[in-house]
């Protein structure tokens, strides 16, 4: 029996040195579906930058030299295909709704022609279409790909994302009512989108347990005198830099390690970097992250509480727990799923106290409980949840059509 085709029109890039929920889910869904991942839409500006910097691989890819379709064999034994789009027009800088809409509609036409062309080559008919945080293209592509059902996947509050906030809320409000189902990653996002579409479902972020998990009977302890407090993830505007500076000063004998992309060049980050016990290690290969987390005594999630972070279900939480590590987090969002497994704090003084408390924790049973929780939150589990929603969506659509007839 042949697999159902699924086209994912994605915001995140397929490649990269960090893990992305859309990529992880599509890899998991490839077991049941023939997945075509429509990669991040690079712009003409990106093409010019690539040419200027000598990034020949990206230039060839965007120009279609050597083909636009690439097949990826996955560790699961399945495979999927990635489609590289031709460059589109840079539109984000336009504040005028009229001008933005004009160029975005042109961009959607470019994307539509490319997807249809390669869908025919791949013999894709009546696909499930998953739009991953791309309402800008989605609004103009609805109904143009002969989709069996249309799913909008939302993993961030678009109105609070500074790089999308100019027109994001407007486009979501116009696009979401016209999709068949909405899948979000947190209860806060569900509340936010529920006014646009009542068929809304929560699929939390998961974890690559094969990559991050450890054997339940294998434990190690950092025997060095200097304890390591670690954070894995982007260092950006979500981070409470005042909290981190306070912690680094109050715990001078502890080493603070930050592993991830730096998306903030503020004075706060520069000030933090001057602390002798703080180490900004930059982005690392995902294959090395499990070992780096293993070396940490305590893992932290030092997020600010604001409109953006309230909608986050932190991907890193299950990565930490996969190693059985104690975790200290601010109360930035609904963390009830982790109640009893992590330490939470409402002030910098309380955060400091929780770090000291977790350092003294020597309970192997607690470590096992954390690992088991993370295992139950694997991407395989999440992909199965996602697939059930897709199937229910097109069943409901078929029922609706039969009633009309």
Which residue ranges are poorly predicted, with pLDDT under 50 across at least 5 consecutive positions? none
Rg (CA only): 22 Å
Provide a count of the helices: 15
CATH topology group of the largest domain: Rossmann fold
Salient structural properties:
405 residues; alpha/beta; Rossmann fold; eight-stranded mixed sheet; six-stranded parallel sheet; 40% helix
Question: Please, could you describe this protein's structure?
Answer:
- The protein contains 15 helices and 14 strands.
- It has 405 residues and is α/β, with parallel strands linked by helices.
- It folds into 2 domains: 4-206 and 379-404, Rossmann fold (3-Layer(aba) Sandwich), CATH 3.40.50.11010; 209-375, 3-Layer(aba) Sandwich (Rossmann fold).
- The strands form 2 sheets. An 8-stranded mixed β-sheet has the order 3-4-2-1-5-6-7-8, sandwiched between helices.
- Strand 5, helix 5 and strand 6 (149-154) form a beta-alpha-beta unit.
- The longest helix is centred in the last third of the chain and has 26 residues, at 379-404.
- The radius of gyration is 22 Å and the shape is globular.
- It starts with a strand and ends with a helix.
- The model has no long low-confidence stretch (mean pLDDT 90).
